[in-house]
Design goal:
Blueprint lengths: L5 E4 L13 E6 L8 H13 L8 E4 L7 E6 L10 H16 L5 E5 L10 H13 L3 H7 L8 E4 L5 H19 L7 H11 L6 E5 L2 H7 L1 H6 L12 E8 L6 E13 L19 H16 L4 E12 L11 E3 L5 E3 L7 H17 L4 E7 L3 H7 L3 E5 L1 H5 L2 H11 L4 E5 L2 H6 L9 E2 L15 H10 L13 E6 L5 E2 L6 E2 L4 H9 L1
Helix pairs in contact: 2-3, 3-5, 5-9, 9-16, 10-15, 13-16
The structure holds zinc ion (ZN).
């Protein structure tokens, strides 16, 4: 077990002694606002000899406090446009100092302002500790690492640990699935890792591994994986997951996750060093798997959540699919391949078509695709996640609700809009196919490069027919996480598991 459990602490006395805590980590924008006078007094004294106290994260010798250690992690740069992520940044610095100082069980004290935007600062700070303490699965397996701390106390007035621990369990799974090298986390191994993680979880789990079934049921996904069929251990997989809450089901959420375990670009091969880091092209499937883990632990009532993860390696070889080919999707749409490096939308199309069939008979369905889809979203929005919704989702304010949840839980979104031009862009030029998957230039230099793929997904999956005037309108929101799936180093940075927390909040709201 690598997860560090968060423990609710409702008794302030724990700051001094008891319950085995051996450091106090204070996260606050203003030392004077810390309710525990002993802490603000200690900090005020320390400031007289060290001007860094309150300016940057520092460790103070604090006899009388748990473990004799007081870490002050100041929340900096709060302005009109700041959101709760500043608390996450401070908490990461604070927990790292406590760990490096030798603490095994720190107590986190978050003293935040009462502003609405910082309402969940304590929970966000606790989640940030999990992010800060994560180590890559390869490292853990090679060095047999165990959890870096025995626990983290969180001083709260209402219990939060069940929620935070369930979220962190999901985030840990998502980071491991996303961040691991393409052989250790091949499609087959990704599927097995899911099966193992969901053993005894109560989730329904099914892995599609039969080649003929993949070819028939997931023709576009199989085209992406055509070259990978040459190598047994690189074969594609589809993982189907379902969570059914207790009681009467009043909502159904359906997720398609892009799990391209390695993306060479295919015949449109990535050149000039552009391939490194492409084992992270599975962040969408990873985040959805993580969300299912969190749901299985929290067991929210009254909702059903269905997921399909498309796991495939976009290899290059003599069998590789090429541009100009016309392939019929699971929905019966004839798709011309515009660029083999625009493979994620092909994988999602078949998954969404299967989910569409399930959504038709479901109670109050909302469909989603989650994917590291385009370079354009990174160019347009930097590290932010984009939401692109169809007209039905817009009427139901899906993106607006997700946006609000993201703001409050440190997983911010940008909302993009579908326009008529996006549908014109995916019309096949000579009419031989129903739709073309993409143009043949990098998305980062293509106008509307992250919006128009949503038009493609709608048309190729058959969801476009379920508009406002259909007797079964279907809500669909495409989520592009290419800019937010990892943080730090652009190629090998730490996976973030975004937007798992915001999706969970949306699911249970
Ligand atoms: Zn690609």
């Amino acid at each position: 077990m690598f997860q560090v459990p968060v423990i609710d602490v409702t008794n302030e006395q724990a700051i001094f002694e008891g319950e085995g805590f051996d450091a106090v980590v204070v996260v606050t924008p203003k030392l004077a606002d810390v309710a525990q006078q002993e802490i603000s007094l200690l900090a005020a004294h320390a400031q007289q000899i060290d001007k860094r106290v309150g300016q940057q994260a520092t460790l103070l010798f604090a006899p009388g406090l748990a473990g004799g250690r007081l870490v002050i992690a100041p929340v900096k740069n709060i302005g009109d446009y700041t959101d709760v992520r500043v608390y996450a940044t401070a908490a990461k610095e604070g927990i790292n100092i406590a760990k490096e100082a030798g603490a095994n069980k720190p107590l986190l004290v978050v003293a935040h302002s009462q502003e609405e935007r910082f309402k969940f600062a304590s929970q966000v700070a606790a989640l940030a500790c999990g992010q800060a303490l994560w180590q890559p699965l390869e490292t853990r397996e090679a060095k047999q690492l165990t959890a870096p701390l025995t626990g983290i106390g969180l001083l709260v007035s209402d219990p939060q640990a069940d929620l935070i621990n369930a979220l962190e369990a999901g985030r840990l799974l998502a980071r491991d699935l996303c961040g691991t090298d393409p052989e250790r986390m091949s499609a087959i191994n990704f599927a097995e890792y899911c099966v193992e993680s969901f053993k005894d979880s109560g989730l329904e789990v099914e892995v599609v591994d039969d080649k003929q079934t993949l070819l028939t049921e997931y023709p576009l996904l199989s085209a992406v994986g055509r070259s990978s069929f040459d190598v047994e251990r690189h074969h594609p997989r589809v993982v189907k997951l379902a969570y059914t809450g207790e009681g009467e089901i009043t909502r159904t959420l359906l997720f398609a996750g892009k799990g391209v375990v390695y993306d060479t670009g295919g015949a449109d091969i990535k050149i000039a060093g552009g391939m490194a880091g492409m084992s992270r092209d599975k962040g969408g499937a990873a985040a959805v798997a993580g969300l299912m883990k969190t749901l299985a632990l929290l067991k929210p009532k009254g909702i059903k959540v269905i997921a399909q993860l498309g796991l495939v390696r976009n290899s290059i070889g003599s069998e590789a699919f090429v541009t100009d080919e016309i392939i019929t999707s699971h929905a019966g749409t004839r798709v011309r391949i515009g660029n083999t490096d625009a493979e994620g939308r092909l994988v999602l199309t078949d998954l969404l078509s299967h989910l569409r069939e399930q959504a038709i008979n479901a109670t109050a369905p909302s469909l989603f695709s989650v994917a590291t889809l385009t370079g354009h979203v990174v160019r347009a929005y930097g590290g932010y996640t984009a939401l692109v919704e169809n007209v039905v989702a817009k009427q139901q304010k899906v993106a607006e609700k997700l946006y609000q949840a993201g703001q409050q839980w440190a997983e911010p979104f940008e909302v993009s809009h579908l326009r008529p031009e996006d549908f014109e862009k995916v019309a096949d030029k000579n009419g031989a196919a129903d739709v073309i998957s993409s143009n043949n230039a990098p998305s980062s230099i293509t106008a509307r490069g992250h919006q128009y793929p949503a038009a493609f997904l709608l048309k190729a999956s058959g969801l476009d027919k379920h508009g406002l005037n259909h007797n079964i309108p279907l809500s669909f929101t495409h989520i592009d996480i290419a800019g937010s799936a990892t943080e730090g180093d652009p190629l090998y940075g730490k996976p973030t598991a975004q937007p798992l927390v915001a999706l969970l909040q949306f699911a249970v709201s």
